[in-house]
Design a protein that fits this description.
With 241 residues, the protein is an alpha/beta fold. The protein contains 11 helices and 10 strands. It is globular and about 50 Å long. It starts with a strand and ends with a strand.
Length: 241
Amino acid sequence: MQVRRLSLADGARAAEGTAVIIDVFRAFTCEPLMLNAGAKRIILEGDPATCLAWREQREPDAVLVGEANERPIDGFDLTNSPWLILQRGQSLFEGRTVVHRTTSGVTGALAAFPNCDEVLLASFLTAGATAAHILSRRPPVVSIVAMGIRSQSPAPEDEACGDLIESRLGESRLGQRGYNHLAALTQILGHETAQKFLRADRPYLPAQDVSLCLQVDLFDFALRAEKRDGQIEAIPVRAGK
């Protein structure tokens, strides 16, 4: 099993085999939380106008969740915040379709999808389950893609999550030192990607998001992007399935 490390929008387009698209802050932290809150399904969509049209033309009770360059999108129900998702919980999500749009994670998954055998959607919350799923299938090539800041520059949390998954696969560029989550936290929390939340000066970037995004192995399922009825959906999967 060859493990490749890639980054950003170019990395998503270059991915092959089984792609692991990582977006810790915050797309693929949000998705397992929305499923846990009872969402019926999650549609991945890159275009905000198409998201709005989905509700207007197909499912009037669909929930629109997302952001554009971290800012809320007019007409959406919720921005891309794990904390706000937890606060709304089942009252918003139970039994409803979610249409999810984000600048890095969702667009990266959609870019990788045409060229890959499988696309997994990963964060710290699902890192262990993602690695277990890959090990159960042992694909010839695994492309781990850290989507970074707006898909344009590296982010320490996505690179660290890639390190964790790679180490769980028995492969690691870290050598015998392995993965150290405390060391990763030191780097992540000191970086602007976390500090912009912790300053708590923008309501659409809640400080609580940081602690939620950095929880490891909170869920026992991975997320896989699958095409169903012409749409790309995030589907929970467990090892061997």
